[in-house]
Amino acid sequence: HALNIHHDEL
Amino acid sequence: MNIFRLSGDVCHLIAIIILFLKIWRSKSCAGISGKSQVLFALVFTTRYLDLFTSYISAYNTVMKVVYLLLAYSTVGLIFFRFRNSYDSESDSFRVEFLLVPVAGLSFLENYAFTPLEILWTFSIYLESVAILPQLFMITKTGEAESITAHYLLFLGLYRALYLANWLWRFHTEGFYDQIAVVSGVVQTIFYCDFFYLYFTRVLRGSGKMSLP
Rounded CA gap, B41 and B169, in Å? Predict the structure, then answer.
């Protein structure tokens, strides 16, 4: 978890 | 996507729909905490700002939009359409006691110090405590209609299934979202007492859930 954080969960 | 995650999302959706239909059909929001519903609308709003910045999947986009629409519709029913039935006297939880610490914590403990990330973190922390005004209201009035109890059951199921989802993802992908998991565990703990009451009273009882 540094750059480009991708939160795919709802 | 795994079966726990999918069924968790579906339970979340069912919970929101149960609540919306209950208010819509009975033309009353008696026993429902408007404050909890405003907090949930705020949770979705601050979390789903990434609708504008990143595309993940059609499923992801559709679910986010549906959650947002239903959350705001429910708030609209409580505070506008059926506001005469809103029991503001019993809905007396002081939400600033939740919002201030949650906002503070999201500035201190986040993945990146950017507006979108801080708001995402805020939404995760806020969701873990957003049901407290509703639970407080039930404690205060001493009972909940069974349909309100079903709503809370499905919200609780959603939480429990997300925990299973995170265990699954950790074992299969090594994926571990610390902020979401810690907040999720805290949130699920709030439902434990309620689960006990639900199974001992609603399922065996007369339809209403009374507190001891």
Answer: 28
